[in-house]
Amino acid sequence: MAELSDYSCFTISVAEHIAHLQFSRPQALNSMNKAFWLELPQAIRDIEMHSDARVIVVSSTGKHFSAGMDLGVFSDSKAVPMSGDPGRMGENLRRVVLQLQDSLSSLEKVRLPVLTAIQGGCIGGALDLVCASDMRYCTADSYFTIKETEIGMTADVGTLQRMPKLIPAGVVRELAYTGRKFLAAEALQLGFVNQVFDDQQQMLDGVMSIAAQIAQNSPLAVTGCKEMLNYSRDHSVEDSLKYMATWQAGMFRPTDLMKSFQAKATKQTAEYDDLFALKNLFED
């Protein structure tokens, strides 16, 4: 397994097929600065290409999960020109927003399940991020808010597109139009989070236990589940069933099935092969 890169906004560790990506700027409330948006997709690729991880846990440090977008991202005149032809300024800003969207979409596109463990505030862009994860868990003191509305803009990197697929659309509209906070208890009732824990350590222990259960399963079966669930979310039942049949015809092999049966017969844990690591065609 290759050495993972160092990042300024995260620490990454991999053990027992679980990658733990942890935000590491608590003094700045783990705000999403320019480096964050650049490093997140790189970190996800790093895990997928250079580790034996079968599941990713995203957590944070300090009092709050993340205060969301650092507005300094938009103060860089090289990235976001504030003068010149309005048409060209608009086209440039659109490209910037698309890059930000792609950064968070890396959590959705990665073959591995992504579990987010949230404490304290999950604000603005941080809510966009957790909406792109597979499952969400939080502490009892957590709260969530579509903060962008309150500061005079429309949330633009994923919450308004993904959240209506997770909780009732009328509730999303209320949260978006008002910008109000919704607390852990409401998030659990709505099904936005899977479970609420008393404190951060209990949450991390619980989420790591769930991640360990996922890591014990066939990684090919698990990535197939993620692929199908994401596809089915955005397509009709008929189209999704056809895609499932095509996937099964191409990807299903009896090897893992036989390993599973043998393990159950001998009351042991099955040992599955890892997925082939993704490779950059231009990397030695």
From TrEMBL:
Family matches, as CDD domains: crotonase-like
Positions in coiled-coil regions: none
UniProt cross-references to PANTHER family, sorted A to Z: ENOYL-COA HYDRATASE
Species: Bacterioplanoides pacificum
Pfam families: ECH_1
Stored InterPro entries: ClpP/crotonase-like_dom_sf, Ech1-like, Enoyl-CoA_hydra/iso, Enoyl-CoA_hydra_C
Family to which this protein belongs: Belongs to the enoyl-CoA hydratase/isomerase family.
Name the UniProt record assigns to this protein: Crotonase/enoyl-CoA hydratase family protein
